[in-house]
Amino acid sequence: MDQACPNTIISLLEDAGRKGSSGANLRRSLEMTDTEFKQESKKLWDKGSLCGIREENCCTRGCGFMCTAYLDESKIWKLTEND
């Protein structure tokens, strides 16, 4: 898997903005196998680049595996805001 895949996930979430997108919608939008998607999204979650949304009980600070939305494709994912 080349390094373009995380950028593709990031690009889709940049387009989605503050409202984010469900993990399932992201997976469907990308030309990746399920395994590739899980590996690449896990890297982003573990770096603290992704978070959930407040409406789904996420603090939005990029807590990695501690996040309520961590790798849960049914939840909304968004880029961590660095305010």
Report on this structure.
The structure is a single chain. The protein has 83 residues and is mostly helical. It has one domain (4-79): Arc Repressor Mutant, subunit A. It is built from 3 helices and 3 strands, in the order H-E-H-H-E-E. Strands 1-3-2 form a 3-stranded antiparallel sheet. The chain is globular and about 30 Å long. The mean pLDDT is 90.
| CATH topology title | Arc Repressor Mutant, subunit A
Total beta-strand segments: 3
Mind describing the biggest β-sheet? 3 strands, antiparallel
| C-alpha end-to-end distance | 31 Å
- Backbone structural class: mainly alpha
Compile the SSE list and pairings.
Blueprint: H1 4-16, E1 21-22, H2 23-29, H3 34-47, E2 50-51, E3 76-79
Antiparallel strand pairs: 1-3, 2-3
Keywords:
83 residues, Arc Repressor Mutant, subunit A, 3-stranded antiparallel beta sheet, mainly alpha, 41% helix, 3 helices, 3 strands, single chain
